[in-house]
Amino acid sequence: WSSPPVAGRSERVHLVHDGRRRRYLLRVPPGAEQVLQVPLLMLLHDAGSSGEEIAAITRFTELADARGFALACPDGTGLRRSSLTWNAAGVVGRGRDGRADDVAYLQTVIDDVKQRVAIDPERIYAAGLGQGATLCHRLVREADGLLAAIAAVGGELPGPMGQGGGRVGVMLGRGKSEAEGLGRARRPGRA
């Protein structure tokens, strides 16, 4: 006999950052209240997507439940949920007006999550696809010491990376087949 898996809880969190109403999806694993501190993974969507969409595509909410980490999936900016982008340092689709300070916004998201869940400050990670991957690189460069590691699939390096003094683990993924596969998964029913 084995017990069925216990699901964590998901919450859509709204906050105001830099005068803009922003939101993120927060997944808290089951039993997080009984653990001293849990790791946090911030999962960043590609241009034209959303936090909820990348969570659904990757099924990371299930992984967070199974592995016991908190998951935050923030939204970029844009006029519609289906066309959100990040200000990812000169990459096409620089946020709704190119002025959103998304590095500061993501730091605010982390601070907000810490108010809701006991997060281990030594185990904060970011993973991103496409434009979200580019923003992961910016976080490493501009928010020194914030992250333990990043996983970036696709995306571009937003300028020289020699700045910052901390050590951060980096996993890079790049390949035509991965990008095509994720693109089809993101837009069901479209060729």
What would the keywords be for this entry?
7 strands; seven-stranded mixed β-sheet; globular; alpha/beta; 191 residues; 27% strand; 5 helices
Question: What's the short story on this structure?
Answer:
The protein is of the alpha/beta class. The protein has helices spanning 51-58, 60-67, 102-116, 131-142, 176-186, and strands at 9-17, 20-28, 38-44, 70-74, 119-129, 149-153, 169-173. The model is unreliable at 91-95 and 178-191 (pLDDT under 50).
Task: Outline the structure in words.
The protein has 191 residues and is of the alpha/beta class. It has five helices and seven strands. The chain has helices at 51-58, 60-67, 102-116, 131-142, 176-186; strands spanning 9-17, 20-28, 38-44, 70-74, 119-129, 149-153, 169-173. Strands 1-2-4-3-5-6-7 form a seven-stranded mixed β-sheet, with helices on both faces. Strand 5, helix 4 (131-142) and strand 6 form a beta-alpha-beta unit. The longest helix is centred in the middle third of the chain and has 15 residues, at 102-116. The N and C termini lie far apart (44 Å). Residues 91-95 and 178-191 have low confidence and may be disordered.
Evaluate the radius of gyration: 16 Å
| Distance between the ends | 44 Å
Tell me the fraction of residues in β-strands, as a range: 25-35%
Return the average pLDDT rounded to an integer: 82
Number of strands: 7
H/E element order: EEEHHEHEHEEH
* Sheet/helix structural class: alpha/beta
Low-pLDDT residue intervals, each spanning 5 or more residues: 91-95, 178-191
Q: What's the total helix number?
A: 5
How do the strands line up in the largest sheet? 1-2-4-3-5-6-7
